[in-house]
Design goal:
79 residues, alpha+beta
């Protein structure tokens, strides 16, 4: 049962740069990919489906490019 614990869960990503005006301007898409990868490791999630729109699509594409072994499905829509 534990290995399927996250099978049907959905997570919403918090994009730091979009929400916090005073955040260090050096935080970039590569940093976000690393942060998200760390979250997946902490939650012990091996593969994910990513559905992204606009900036979320760009982040999804960047994450899939950097960590292709973590991607099961990638669904993107660019604005």
């Amino acid at each position: 049962m534990a290995e399927n614990m996250h099978e049907n869960l959905a997570y919403k990503s918090y994009i730091k740069q979009h929400a916090i005006k005073d955040l260090d301007n050096n935080y970039n898409i590569d940093d976000w990919c690393d942060d998200f990868h760390e979250i997946l490791q902490i939650l012990d999630i091996d593969k994910i489906d990513i559905c992204g729109y606009s900036m979320g699509a760009r982040l999804g594409i960047a994450f899939a490019s950097k960590y292709p072994n973590k991607i099961n499905k990638l669904i993107m829509s660019l604005k």
